[in-house]
Every structure is written in structure tokens, then in C-alpha cells.
Write a structure and sequence with these properties.
heterodimer; A: Aconitase, domain 3; 3 domains; B: alpha/beta; Glucose Oxidase, domain 1; eight-stranded mixed sheet; about 20% helix
Chain lengths: ~400, ~140
């Protein structure tokens, strides 16, 4: 691989963390056939929840910080295993909390923004079209590639951190324009109306195309939250990092020369059934990926003046929660019996340890991960339906 | 049997592709199946604890660990780093193909690592001592 003088210097750095970070990127570049490095504008670090990385992860992050790791570009942290202000109230074990705080402290020492969110683009890290970045959380990767038009591969925790430290990433995969073309076409004949419909379309498609790049023809609208749900689902059932929605995210005409499949009403209905294994959820969770202000507004409007008959978590970033607090939405939701939580979500927090066995969600991503990661039976449906079933 | 025959004519080096740098020497510990380090190896002792794995009960510290490839959680990289920090790392790693989880862990933990050896992994026998030179890209029986 061709390296600039500066990159050669990083490889010889006296700072152990910098040297190892550069070695890692060069080696990964070799494995993936990169010819050079490319400078990045921002990074997003994953592998932040103690539940995901365990003691080896805590020791790695502390060790790396001690070796001198420091970010050189804005770097946002993925969700943690708990709300840092309300973990006790949620019943999170003190030993778990201690480890999670050690992770937080190591991230802080490295200069990582303690954002603890999977939607950094809603919380202060929004790249521009065409910029190269190194992001790691799969739904955020999909969103910046597909909706924003920035360029990133699906990074792992260490490779994103190495990119954050050195300010560069090997130039291969989705950093190259020739790899950013559709490989499947999905003709959508079903009526895609709710955010959950977008999610179901996504989970069905991800299973089909795996790591392909689908082009959706026939959806005539889609808001930020809809596209967030679509991409998150495809990145969970598949490894989709880039997709196209006709007239919504791209002006490109539908491709003619790729495998084409149809998603009709039958597929939509079957996908809802595929994602559902429970009918009496103990916990309803909204906010996978983390809620936007509009979604919290929707939840507040739906539960206002009512009483919830099951637990409700509304998960978001601390940035968006501040806004929900100020506008009284948090109070409305909590008066009804719900909780608005920052920093975490139902997938990366230890909800199975909190006594929950069944969850409801409008996220196809959460519905995909909850059975395996959290031993949950799952009910999947749109927000309004889920909330109507648990309010009186 | 072929490996015994090659043992007798031995100290010829087996060529391999360097993944990391450095040299390491130790007894071969070969796994016939892939390894997921997370949940399989104790980072502070090097003990292999995964239930039902062919290496269960072995200790990988100071061994030349031979296995086709890594698998499973990306946290496996952190386990290799932790083993190195705790002085419990293998002396070297030889793979058929080093995928990103093992490559990342070997780089962070500065563990000598090579892949694509010119001989079958099976020809490296448990207990024989070999020297892995990840700078030169060779595996040599000692």
C-alpha cells in the first residue's frame, strides 16, 4: 500500500497506541486490497456497552487510553448498557454500572464525545455528502451512506477507533465510487405507510440481499425516521451498508440489469408475522435506532392523559432527551407510566437481568436481535397499535 | 505419517504470509476447528474454557497456536489483546487464513502471526516445538 510520509511517521510513532492504530489500518488495508489511505472527517466508535464487550473490552479501552490513544477527528460513542443517570432506578446491577463507568472514563480520556447514541446524525455529528468517515454502528453506517451520501465501510470497534486516532482509513469498499452502485432492485407494490412498514420492508430485504445494495422502486415518500428504520432493519437481518430509494434518496433511475424482486402486500403481512413471537409484552420499547424529537412527540401525544398497563421505554440520545425534557414531553410520558431514557437501548442493556421475558417494538432491528441478545419473545407492530394495546 | 517423514529430513522452513511482526517459539497447540476467543479463553490465565471445544482444558500461554481461522464475536480481538497484556498470549499464531478479528487482536497485542503456510496445518503436530518468524514469513521446526 502507498503511504504518505505522515502515515509512515505514524507507523514509527513513539506513542504505542498511534503506532498500533496505524499498523492495524495498514494490515486491514492489505487484507481488503486498499492501495492507499484516505483522510476522514469523523468517526463513530462501537462496542461501548459493557454487555457487548465484557471485561476484555474494558481492559482494552483502558489499556489503549493508557498507551496514549487520543482521537484526531470528532468521534461519537455508540449507546452504552445503561442510562448513566438512572441506572439504579432501572435495577441495573452495581457491578455492571461500575464497569460501564470505567468504559465511559476511558472513552473520555481518549477524547471521544460521550454521545452514547446510534443516531449521531440527530445529535451533533452530521457529515456532508461525499465526505469520507469511519463509522461503526450498522444502522448509522447505512444512514450516512444512503441518506446523507457520505462514505463509510461497516467498521468494527477497533478499526473505527484506529481511524479516529490516526484520522484515516484504508480506501476500499464503499470509499470507492465504483462500489456504490445498486446490486438488487426491489419493486415495492405494498402500501408502505407507517415507520414499522419501512422496518418490515427492510428486514425482509436484508435477509434476501445479505450484503448487497438494494434499490427500492415504488415508494414515493419517506421521512428521516422512516429511512432510519429501513436501513437499521437491513443492517440487522443482512449486512446492508448502502441502499437507494427512488426519488427519495437518489435521482438515479431504477437499474435494469440487476436481480429484481417484488415486495407485495403478502410479503409485508408475512414479515410482520415473522418478527412476532409474543402477544402479551411486558415492556414496550420505542427508539431503536434512538428516537428523533418527532418520534418522542408522537409517543407523548398518544399516551397523554392515559395510564400504561405495561412498562414503556423511550430510548434516545442525551441531546434529544434534553429537548424532550424542556418541552414537557418527558413529563407527559412519565406521568402515564413510561420512561424516557438516554444513553442506552433495550438491545445493549441487560433487560433480561431486569426480569423482562417479552418485549414489544416498532423496530425490525430490535425484533431481530432481542430473542438472541436478550432472551425476549417479541411483538412487532407500529407505534400507535403497540401503545393502544397498553394504554387505558 | 507424512509429517513424521518430513520431521526426519526436517529443519527446512515452511513459508507463510506475515500478518504481524516479530518472532515466537513454542510447542504447537493445534485446534482442528475455528476459534472464537471471546467466551472461549480466559484473558487473565490463557486457559481454554469453552465447553466441548477440542482445546477445552488446555492453556494457550506460550504455545504456537495453530488453527484454520477465527470466528464469532469481534470482542475476540480484545481477548487477544488482554492475553498479551496479562502475559498469557500464545508465542505465535499460525492460521490458514487470518480474518479481521484475529488480525486485529494480534496487531493490538503484538503477537507474531502468519497465515497461508506452504504446508497443511495438519503437518504441525501437537507438542513439537516450532519457531515462527513473522518478519521473514517462515515456520521452522526446532
Amino acid at each position: 500500500m502507498h503511504l504518505t510520509q505522515h502515515e509512515e511517521d505514524l507507523l514509527e510513532s513513539d506513542n504505542d497506541a498511534v503506532r498500533k492504530a496505524m499498523e492495524l489500518l495498514v494490515k486491514l488495508g492489505d487484507i481488503y486490497g486498499a492501495e492507499e489511505m484516505i483522510e476522514i472527517e469523523s468517526a463513530q466508535a462501537s462496542g461501548i456497552s459493557y454487555k457487548s464487550i465484557g471485561d476484555p473490552g474494558v481492559e482494552f479501552l483502558e489499556g489503549f487510553a493508557e498507551e496514549g490513544a487520543e482521537t484526531s477527528v470528532p468521534t461519537f460513542a455508540n449507546p452504552a448498557g445503561m442510562d448513566f443517570e438512572r441506572w439504579e432506578e432501572l435495577g441495573i446491577d452495581e457491578a455492571f454500572a461500575d464497569k460501564q463507568k470505567r468504559i465511559r472514563d476511558a472513552l473520555k480520556e481518549m477524547g471521544i464525545v460521550l454521545s452514547f447514541t446510534c443516531t449521531p446524525y440527530l445529535a451533533g455529528n452530521l457529515p456532508r455528502r461525499g465526505q469520507h468517515v469511519a463509522w461503526a454502528e450498522s444502522s448509522a453506517v447505512s444512514f450516512v451512506n444512503s441518506v446523507v451520501g457520505a462514505k463509510t465501510n461497516r467498521e468494527g470497534g477497533p478499526s473505527a477507533l484506529a481511524a479516529a486516532i490516526t484520522g484515516r482509513t484504508p480506501k476500499y469498499g464503499l470509499h470507492l465510487e465504483e462500489n456504490r452502485q445498486p446490486t438488487y432492485r426491489i419493486d415495492v407494490e405494498a402500501d408502505i405507510e407507517s415507520q414499522a412498514d419501512f422496518a418490515a420492508l427492510g428486514s425482509w430485504t436484508g435477509r434476501l440481499v445479505e450484503d448487497g445494495k438494494p434499490y427500492f422502486a415504488g415508494i414515493d415518500s419517506g421521512g428521516t425516521d422512516d429511512l432510519k428504520s429501513l436501513g437499521a432493519a437491513m443492517a440487522a437481518t443482512g449486512a446492508v451498508a448502502l441502499h437507494f430509494v427512488e426519488d427519495v434518496t437518489t435521482e438515479m433511475d431504477p437499474p435494469e440489469n440487476v436481480e429484481t424482486v417484488t415486495f407485495g402486500e403478502g410479503e409485508l403481512e408475512e414479515e410482520y408475522a415473522e418478527l412476532t413471537t409474543a402477544d402479551d409484552p411486558e415492556l414496550v420499547v420505542i427508539g431503536c435506532p434512538h428516537c428523533s424529537p418527532e418520534e418522542i412527540q408522537d409517543v407523548a401525544a398518544t399516551v397523554e392523559g392515559k395510564a400504561l398497563t405495561s412498562d414503556l421505554w423511550v430510548c434516545t440520545s442525551a441531546s434529544v432527551k434534553t429537548w424532550a425534557d424542556r418541552n414537557g414531553l418527558t413529563e407527559t410520558i412519565e406521568t402515564a407510566g413510561g420512561k424516557v431514557l438516554a444513553d442506552t437501548c433495550n438491545v445493549v442493556s441487560p433487560i433480561e437481568e431486569l426480569g423482562y421475558e417479552s418485549s414489544a417494538t416498532d423496530s425490525a432491528k430490535a425484533a431481530t436481535y432481542l430473542p438472541g441478545f436478550c432472551n425476549q419473545d417479541v411483538a412487532f407492530n407500529d407505534k400507535e397499535t403497540l401503545l393502544a394495546e397498553v394504554t387505558e | 505419517m507424512t509429517s513424521e517423514a518430513s520431521n526426519e529430513t526436517a529443519p527446512e522452513a515452511i513459508d507463510a504470509e506475515p500478518i504481524t511482526e516479530g518472532t515466537g517459539r513454542g510447542e504447537v497447540l493445534r485446534s482442528p476447528v475455528p476459534i472464537s476467543f471471546y467466551g472461549a479463553v480466559e484473558p487473565d490465565t490463557g486457559e481454554f474454557i469453552e465447553d466441548g471445544h477440542p482445546l477445552e482444558g488446555e492453556n494457550i500461554t506460550g504455545k504456537v497456536l495453530v488453527f484454520a481461522r477465527g470466528k464469532g464475536s469481534t470482542v475476540g480481538s480484545y481477548v487477544l489483546y488482554g492475553l498479551a497484556n496479562n502475559g498469557c498470549a500464545p508465542a505465535a499464531i499460525v492460521n490458514e487464513e487470518t480474518e479481521t478479528i484475529v488480525a486485529t487482536g494480534a496487531i493490538l497485542g503484538e503477537i507474531p502471526c502468519v497465515d497461508s503456510p506452504a504446508a497443511d496445518l495438519d503437518s504441525l503436530e501437537d507438542g513439537e516445538t516450532v519457531a515462527v518468524d513473522a518478519d521473514a514469513g517462515t515456520i521452522r521446526r526446532v
